[in-house]
Amino acid sequence: MTGPSDVPLKVALLGCGTVGSAVLRLLSEQAADLTARIGRPVEVAGVAVRRPDRHPDVPAELLTTDAHALVRRPDVDRVVEVLGGIEPARSLLLAAMAAGKSVVSANKALLADDGVALHTAAADAGVDLYYEAAVAGAIPLLRPLRESLAGDQLRRVVGIVNGTTNYILSSMVETGAGFGEALAEATEAGYAEADPTADVDGFDAAAKAAILASLAFHSAVHASDVYREGISAVSATDVARAAEIGCTVKLLAICERVPGANGAGDSIAVRVHPAMIPTSHPLAAVNGAFNAVFVEAEAAGQLMFYGQGAGGGPTASAVLGDLVAVARNRVAGVAGPNATGYAALPTRPMAETPTRYHVSLDVADKPGVLATVAQEFAAQGVSIATVRQDGHGDAATLVIVTHQAPDAALAATVERLRGMAAVRGVTSVLRVEGLT
Ligand code: HSE
Asked: Is 208 a catalytic residue?
């Protein structure tokens, strides 16, 4: 047990880009408050970077290119990793924990790829592994899932966890633009990277979904377990059709516990894809680059967490929050709660996951067309919830929203519809979430 003292807790910072520099700034600006909150001063022991000459604002004596030596230094108490990527971050964190140092990481790719090994290393070493900044930037979310909701049973976690895609989709809804035009505008405005693949194709959101699902359901979920579709196929027609049925289009990260049928145990389904959601849903009001996560729990009911999911300041706020938590644990001589994987629920394949579809079709306005279309749904065991027809001349648009069915049955239905003589075109297909 180490009591309040003037002896500083020494922190090694790995990486000094946008987030790392903001962490250094906040550590300096808030030094007195942090000391009071922790019970001991926090001091930066060293900053590992690749190119020291690119960091003129950091005192030269703190800079090092030898991150491995820094994390092993006996005077370093805590390690903060904001490097990103898998290696060398993984080896550095494992080395730090093996040396008895708690770590704070903002590294979603690493946690989603290798969370189990990292948590095992933390448990074996009796140290803390906190990574609030890895999902949804400033929004306190992982510790609420890990700690505040630890007495509850979670049913679903549905989030808008990628600001770039939310910015693009919000602008498509607002202006009626297509995906390409909205992406170009987002790039121009600095909201999309020069290579937007990780965001636009859903990789970033899938990594975050894996982390959320692991914590929410006490089970190991890897990024590769997450079904993923990005937003590049979302069209202006999809957005317009959504508006016609009182919905908007969002890229959702959905983590849910699916009850087992016929004596089978529960499983978890984790997916990232664009979906229509009702404009009355709290997530529909989350626009621009903001993130939000909607949680449904047995006892707590519905909760929503909202805020800035990226950027130096917001992400550094989450890192500092974790740093204060692990530093307090150090002062108290304890380790904080580790994530648990005791439930070990299996991940359900997307094909078997229950979803609902919205399908818009251009058809001939003739007797029997609706019946033959409906028959394709029935043939796949898919129940139709609503049908709307808008006629124009000998042509008509059919807008169909289904009840829940296994995703594979819905996808097979759409494929059959594409091949039907009576169907001139399938003009919009999107999953629907949150409709009653
Ligand atoms: N690129 C991410 C986003 C932020 O657009 O939300 C970092 O996870």
From this structure: yes
pLDDT band at 1 (very low <50, low <70, confident <90, very high): very low
143-308 maps to which CATH number?
A: 3.30.360.10
Query: Tell me, what's the pLDDT at 266?
Result: 96
Distances (CA, A) of 302 to 154, 158, 341, 372: 10, 11, 24, 41
Q: Is 162 in the pocket of ligand 1 (CB under 6 A)?
A: yes
Pocket residue to mutate for ligand 1, from 199, 251, 252, most atoms within 8 A of Cβ: 199
pLDDT for 2: 46
Report which ligand 1 atom has the smallest distance to the Cα of 204.
Answer: 8
Distance of CA 423 to the CA centre of its chain: 37
pLDDT of residue 395: 86
Q: Is 310 in the pocket of ligand 1 (CB under 6 A)?
A: yes
Is the CB of 202 within 6 Å of ligand 1?
Answer: no
Contacts of 102 (CB under 8 A, 6+ apart): 77, 78, 79, 122, 127, 128, 129, 130, 326, 329, 330, 335
CATH fold of 9-137+312-332, please?
A: Rossmann fold (3.40.50)
Please report which confidence band the pLDDT of residue 393 belongs to, taking 50, 70 and 90 as the band edges. confident
Task: Determine whether the shortest distance from the Cβ of 308 to ligand 1 is under 6 A.
Answer: no
How is 290-323 classified by DSSP, letter by letter? EEEEEEEETTTEEEEEEEE-SSHHHHHHHHHHHH
To the question of pTM greater than 0.85 for the whole model, the response is yes
Domain boundary assignment for the chain: 9-137+312-332, 143-308, 352-432
In the reported structure, the alpha carbon of residue 309 is separated from the centroid of ligand 1 by a whole-number distance in angstroms of 7
State the pLDDT confidence band at 340, using cuts at 50, 70 and 90.
confident
pLDDT, tens only, 111-140: 999 999 999 999 999 999 999 999 999 999
> Average pLDDT over the chain, rounded to whole?
95
CATH of span 352-432: 3.30.70.260
Cα–Cα distances in Å, from 45 out to 9, 221, 350?
9, 35, 47
